[in-house]
Specification:
Layout: H1 3-20, E1 29-35, H2 39-55, E2 58-64, H3 70-81, E3 88-91, H4 101-107, H5 119-126, H6 135-146, E4 155-159, H7 166-175, E5 179-183, H8 190-194, E6 199-202, E7 222-225, E8 229-231, E9 234-236, H9 241-246, E10 250-251, H10 258-278
Parallel strand pairs: 1-2, 1-3, 4-5, 4-6, 6-7, 7-10
Antiparallel strand pairs: 8-9
């Protein structure tokens, strides 16, 4: 399952929309907030701003010292909320120790919340009425639809329960009528559960401690790998990719699977929030992307 291919299609359509909407005075502008000097977070931020530039979306980054207080961080977010020139706000996670990410992300205006983590946007997701959805979960759902993976009535197993990925993804799967099992560090008989999955989604990111091997994959299952780990300088996912292929699975590679989709859906959310604030319809339906001819 080629995430780069699908992401590129989305980016082309977003670039077209950004250009077309200029006459409607829709000027999407993303501001990212980076706290501290985590090298991985800095790399993610660079990738996001490069992607914005590629499609004509304005962006800038605010860097704050790791020792900043919660009050100072939240004051920065409040200033961005009140800045009419800013249409999208993203707080790069994780935050340094001592800062409350839940409090900070919930403070981001729901209209500018490109990560979909404001409590109002999460609540709308549970009501099946959310416009702004967290980027990685939405990217997973777009991939499943693009590759014609039937979700309704299928057993989906999600190995992740985070607020950013696992929990919203579970709700999106439920909204599409899947039967969903959530697994985590306290789950018993994990292999027995994953072996039942028609759709197996994993997002642990500790390859040295956890690998999804052939014994965990049902023959013919769809396997979505969200986990990322650096092993000897090489980026790897949770899944033994070759073993998954031998099991006859549709599987996302790492890199090149969910990662590019996350960036593409951030661009989509940034354009969407700008349109919502201007009361302009975004004429881009992610469900209408052309699917490849599959065997």
């Amino acid at each position: 399952m080629d995430g780069r291919l699908v992401a590129q299609q989305i980016k082309v359509k977003i670039k077209e929309q950004v250009s077309a909407l200029k006459s409607s005075r829709v000027d999407p502008t993303l501001v990212t907030v980076l706290v501290g000097d985590n090298p991985a977070s800095k790399a993610y931020i660079r990738n996001k701003h490069t992607a914005c530039s590629d499609v004509g979306i304005k962006s800038r980054n605010i860097e704050l010292k790791a020792g900043i207080s919660q009050v100072e961080l939240e004051d920065t977010i409040k200033e961005l909320n009140s800045d009419a020139s800013v249409t999208g706000i993203l707080l790069q996670l994780p935050l340094p120790s001592g800062l409350n990410d839940s409090s900070a992300t919930s403070l981001i205006s729901k209209e500018k919340d490109v990560d979909g983590l404001n409590v109002c946007n999460l609540g709308l997701l549970f009501q099946r009425n959310a416009a702004i959805v967290p980027c990685t979960p939405r990217g997973v759902m777009v991939l499943l639809k693009y590759y014609r993976v039937q979700v309704a009535g299928r057993h989906a197993v999600v190995i992740n329960r985070t607020r950013l990925v696992g929990r919203p993804l579970v709700q999106l799967l439920l909204n599409e009528d899947a039967t969903v099992t959530v697994c985590h560090s306290k789950t018993r008989n994990l292999t027995g559960i994953t072996k039942q999955a028609d759709i197996l989604i994993t997002g642990i990111g500790r390859r040295s401690e956890f690998v999804v091997g052939a014994d965990m994959i049902k023959s013919g299952a769809t396997v979505i790998d969200i986990g990322t780990s650096s092993v000897g300088g090489t980026l790897m996912g949770d899944v033994d990719f070759e073993a998954a292929l031998k099991a006859g699975a549709l599987v996302t590679p790492v890199p090149g699977g969910v990662g590019p989709m996350t960036i593409a859906l951030l661009l989509y959310n940034t354009l969407l929030t700008a349109c919502l604030q201007k009361g302009v319809e975004l004429k881009l339906n992610l469900n209408e992307l052309a699917s490849p001819a599959l065997p």
